[in-house]
Amino acid sequence: MRILVICQYYYPEQxxxxxxxxxxxCRGHEVTVITGVPNYPKGEIYKGYEHGERKDEIxxxxxxxxxxxxxxxxxxxxRVLNYFSYALSSSIYVKVSKFQSQKEEQFDVVLVNQLSPVxxxxxxxxxxxxxxxxxxxxxxxxxPVSLEVSGMKRTSLIxxxxxxxxxxxxxxxxxxxxxxxxxxxYLKKLTGRSESDIxxxxxxxxxxFIDDNLSKKQDGHYDFGFAGNIGQLQSxxxxxxxxxxLANREDITFHIVGDGISLNKCKEMAKGxxxxxxxxxxxxxxxxxFYKKMDAMLVTMIDxxxxxxxxxxxxxxxxxxxxxxxxxxxxxxDAIIKRAGCGYCCEAEQPTALKEDIISFINDKEKEKLGRNxxxxxxxxxxxxxxxxxxxxxxxxxxxKFEKCTxxxxxxx
Length: 413
Fold this sequence. Notes:
By secondary structure, this protein is α/β, with parallel strands linked by helices. It has helices at residues 17-26, 76-96, 122-131, 157-172, 182-191, 236-245, 263-269, 287-292, 314-320, 332-340, 351-363, 367-381, 384-403, and strands at residues 2-6, 30-36, 56-59, 62-67, 109-114, 135-139, 175-178, 198-200, 222-227, 252-257, 276-280, 296-300, 325-328, 343-346. Strand 6, helix 4 (157-172) and strand 7 (175-178) form a beta-alpha-beta unit.
């Protein structure tokens, strides 16, 4: 297949879409990505991309084109400019340019890898209109409900505007894939789509985490790690507060790898603590060694009914690596941890409960079983092969659906 991928974020930004595109190439498909100028998560354009350099490049077999994007910087004003600048520039690009595959033919299908904002899907709609090709929309962040997390009320005019925009984009997709089961009912109500048009496609872990040698040897000291974005939703503050509660335990250390808008706040909260270490943003390739030093991995999110519908992709990485998972998180992640029997989980934003779960883990004589349980669950439900069998099948189904009328069989292109 000739696949056009629309996603505002791509390498050197660290998102799983990088691995998805490269794996599709390895499986014999031609992949082209229309993305933005890299600036996530700090809102500063990455070195080497500041002045329009590397607008077009090939990365591990994936052709990449970067459209104009206002960096996120700080504050709502620049966040809005960031969102709409990419949506507008990418839509104009596919509409006015003769954008084709490497073989100078139109693409067979468009894949939208949708995080925030949902507006990144506009370019896919423009390409579909121009070339009559199907769109598969992979929804990893549900809009407009994500806006409620920032305090926006459903009754506000801005929320209603984004609801209209979201409905329009979701409706225009031929198929919608969702990373969380909780998304299905919401999208059915929002769009009126049948359940057969919405497919559950949980995330997987990159190959570097599929390693049977990442278990830590017991040494009497207990290390707990968090890896990922440190933003408003992730509630890493809960981990810092837990570290304060365990400050008298010299045998416990918390390790935080990642970057984001809440990092400085967390560092400020942690001043004077000797049991918590911040490493900043690290390359993906270094993460297995980090995991290897941990007794268990942590996952936290804010206490919000909407946020809890999402299971962070880091959970699959933790499970694939055979690491026990300790969470302060509600909803789908809590259910998965308990169903898999791979760790402990308490309610979101509850440092005291998280502290108690950490102590319970330390005292658990069968703690090593937790990691094995998680790995077994991962192999049963979340493997890379299962993901790509489903994804490529969905892309092919989209092409077939678009080429032939369901009722008369005539070619639609």
